[in-house]
Design goal:
Elements (H helix, E strand, L loop, with lengths): L2 H17 L1 E5 L2 E4 H6 L12 H14 L9 H22 L4 H7 L6 H15 L5
Antiparallel strand pairs: 1-2
Helix pairs in contact: 1-3, 1-6, 3-4, 4-6
């Protein structure tokens, strides 16, 4: 599989994952779209928009023969992973959670969309096939 096809597939996964369940609770599921359009909250909920936007730019850039505008492919590949790391580690620290409790809670309550976003972000950032 070449870089173009891998980029298109992972970009589509980022876009689709945004509309799938990010958080699963006994009371219902919440997708990234539900989180962004919800009332209340703070500016951090808009960080979830990084995933579909980067996915759209990656798909369009790959179909445009590697012309990733306005950002480079490297930025578009690393931005989702940085957003995931912020959401999983830094945001709970800022909100006052103990450092050890953050790692105890990793993986609990994640929905299929969040797992797909994490996996696609990791592969985009760390795997870089040749042309």
């Amino acid at each position: 599989m070449n870089r173009k096809m891998l980029t298109i597939i992972l970009g589509v996964i980022l876009i689709a994952g945004f509309f799938l369940a990010y958080w699963s609770t006994p009371f219902g599921d919440a997708s990234g779209f539900d989180i962004v359009k919800s009332k209340g909250g703070n500016w951090q909920k808009y960080l979830y928009l990084i995933f579909p936007l980067c996915g759209i730019f990656l798909v369009i850039g790959a179909m445009n023969n590697g012309n990733y505008q306005p950002l480079s492919r490297n930025v578009l590949c690393w931005l989702p992973l940085l957003a995931v790391l912020y959401m999983l580690i830094i945001k709970p620290l800022v909100d006052g959670a103990a450092f050890g409790d953050i790692f105890k809670m990793l993986g609990k309550g994640y929905g299929i969309g969040w797992w797909a976003t994490i996996a696609a972000s990791l592969v985009l950032a760390l795997y870089n096939p040749k042309e």
